[in-house]
């Protein structure tokens, strides 16, 4: 039996959260001068497959599709994942994708370090998305400088 095509929804709530993260963490995300270049899309009506390891994926949008939109990046995720996460987990899910945008913001995507965000693994340990996390927008975290200093050693 053929697999049903995913139903995509634009996700403005995630895009609004991205704008707040970019504003709150200029030391990490300052090269993203216009958060409107990042769109978010959720797969609706279908739960995340159980064996799937990613919670979100970042893709670059290059020409010619970029000619019709100001979006240069798209973060996609399952709506069920978003709905099951609290705000803190949503923020971390988005932040680890935003870290993969290079300084040039040209549609290219940097690879993960450690198959994940080095910053978050160093700060919270492996499997951090399965544990309680702090709200990145309520209180500014200085984990960024600590993880970068450790990485340079």
Topology (elements, then pairings):
Layout: E1 7-10, H1 12-24, H2 26-29, E2 38-44, E3 57-60, E4 73-78, H3 79-84, H4 87-98, H5 118-124, H6 143-152
Parallel strand pairs: 2-4
Antiparallel strand pairs: 1-2, 3-4
Helix pairs in contact: 1-4, 5-6
Short account of what is shown:
With 153 residues, the protein is α+β, with helices and mostly antiparallel strands. The protein has 6 helices and 4 strands, in the order βααβββαααα.
| Helix/strand order | EHHEEEHHHH
Q: Tell me the Rg in angstroms.
A: 16 Å
Task: Indicate the structural class.
Answer: alpha+beta
What share of residues is helical? Answer: 25-40%
Name the beta content range. Answer: 5-15%
Shape estimate: globular
As laid out across the biggest beta sheet, the strand order is: 1-2-4-3
What are the segments in which pLDDT stays under 50 over at least 5 consecutive residues? 146-153
Instruction: Quote the distance from N terminus to C terminus.
Output: 53 Å
Question: Count of DSSP E strands?
Answer: 4
Describe the main β-sheet briefly.
4 strands, mixed
Count of discrete structural domains: 1
Question: What's the pLDDT, averaged over the residues?
Answer: 87
Number of helices: 6
Tell me what you see in this structure.
With 153 residues, the chain is an alpha+beta fold. It has one domain (7-152). The protein is built from 6 helices and 4 strands. It has helices at residues 12-24, 26-29, 79-84, 87-98, 118-124, 143-152, and strands spanning 7-10, 38-44, 57-60, 73-78. It has a 4-stranded mixed sheet with strand order 1-2-4-3. It is globular. Residues 146-153 have low confidence and may be disordered.
